[in-house]
Specification:
Elements lengths: L3 H14 L4 H4 L6 H8 L46 E6 L2 E6 L6 E2 L7 E7 L6 E6 L15 E6 L6 E7 L6 E2 L5 E9 L2 E8 L4 E8 L1 E5 L5 E6 L2 E6 L5 E5 L4 E7 L5 E8 L4 E8 L7 E5 L4 E6 L6 E5 L7 E4 L6 E4 L6 E2 L6 E5 L2 E5 L6 E3 L13 E3 L6
Antiparallel strand pairs: 1-2, 1-28, 2-3, 4-5, 5-6, 6-7, 8-9, 9-10, 10-11, 12-13, 13-14, 14-15, 16-17, 17-18, 18-19, 20-21, 21-22, 22-23, 24-25, 25-26, 26-27
Amino acid sequence: MKGKPLFLIIIFLLAAACGPTPAQQAAQTATAQTAIAQAWTPTPRPTATALPPTFTPTPTTPAPTVTPQPTATPLPTPFGALTTNLVAYQEKGEIHVVNIRGENKITITTNLKGIKRLMGWSADGVWVMVARYDKEPPAAIDDPIKYLRELMAVNPSTGEYQQVMNIGPNDSPAWAQDGKSFVITSPKENLVRGIYKVDMKTMKATDTGYTGSSPAISADGKIIAWYNANEIRMMKEGTRPVILARIDTGFTRSLLFAPDGKYLLYIVDNVEQKLSTLYRIKLEGTDAPEQVKAFDRQVWPLSLSPNNAWILLADYTNPNSGWGVISPDGKTLNWVRDYLYPEWTPDGSQLIAQKGKTISLIDPASGGVKETDLLKWIQDLTGVWYIQPTLKK
């Protein structure tokens, strides 16, 4: 079994325990769709005089600081030979890398002590991201600072690993598509998360000086956005933030820059009715948010396909009931049943998913299914697995 549904459920439970619940934020809502229409007033966005003073960021990491781990001694061959078509997976507490057919297995976390959790690949496929901590956090967390994890980057080609920063129990990177940077939250105090940007070349985490949730980053890494205090805020490199939208009702989350670079996508939940609505808003101008798709359930965006054509969705109302794909413009939506959560092929044209002992390729546009022996070996895995992405040249 691939184990991704259980993994996502644990993430959802931890997320709920670490901050205000969606129900609390949506207590006075009717539906997200109606609420947004009523709450929005298309007034000009704040001018520079209404914004906070310019913040000059300096490289930092969230407290408490941990002692950096030493660089691992390069491992012997065939380590250096594995450079393309790799799969990272977790099994029995360790993280391994193999080729696409499950051959030439290498354990990349031998030199990391404590509990390790695989978080996936960097967007350029160079690094495997691993969270390391000394003890499992409880199901209910009173203060996330007590359970900080070390975010590590491991290079499967050399065995080198580097400590990036400290993160909370449910914080995870949102990557720029060029793989050079990502944004992430990390606890500053109980229920308050700072927004950080990480440069993968220097492995430095820079505190933006702002707090919030659901950070997103543009494809080139030059624009970031986040949600805080009923506002969606956007900040271009070298400038102060502006307010894209004020949202007075509903639970807002899952910010994502659209592939065309003109819009920011986001989800608004009506938790009482268990419904989600996908919206988009232009990055320039003063237009009101535009509804892209009203779902008949709560959904959770998982990933953007490598070819930018699809957004992978999880059914948040019932994580065991399936998953789907939607085009960024909302015109095409396909739901898939009975298969475990999938992975994109490196070119983004198909999804690889498991149903029982069968591994299949699924066409996101038509929903067509074709069995494959390519990843037959994953059928007995109990942990998560991720296919190495390929950076566009």
